[in-house]
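Quick one:
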Amino acid sequence: MQAAQPPSVAESDRLAGKYLTFQLGPESYGLEILKVREIIGLMDITLVPRTPAYTRGVINLRGKIIPVIDLRLTFGMDAIEDTERTCIIVMDIQLDDCPSQLGILVDAVSEVLDILATSIAPPPSFGTKLDAAFISGMARTTDSVTVLLDIDQVFNSTEALEIANIAATDGGAEPPASVGTASSKPEDGAACT
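Output:
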């Protein structure tokens, strides 16, 4: 395995900042705080038939239908029973170049960390068969490593289209403003579906 090159100063500076950290099992992950809309406790999730296994369903959050993804299943981890610490992080993300909202189910939210550029290493090289584009970097914290995620890259284009359509197919409910509306067009003018 080839050793990863140190990140450039510009790349480290770009990644430095505040991250919401959360747990999936014993591992710690971080999301750029500016992408986090809110954190909510576990609530009723409506199942949507014929959706991928990692899709828990949709929630009605103050009148908006938001798809909820089980991040454990997305990452190939075993499913576990929900606990009192299980929560949903509602994110502002780009799904196939379209702005959208997405809830990700995590085991527990930890804290907000201010991660310095000097603490960030590039993602390790796992070879050509593993796509690690969704990992922005690895943050060295007090006594562990936090995997910094690029949430916009977690889902490939096929998954992104499936997720974007989940909210619109929930029993005739109005699609959320972030799915297929004029206000959700990407900057280049292409229509979002």
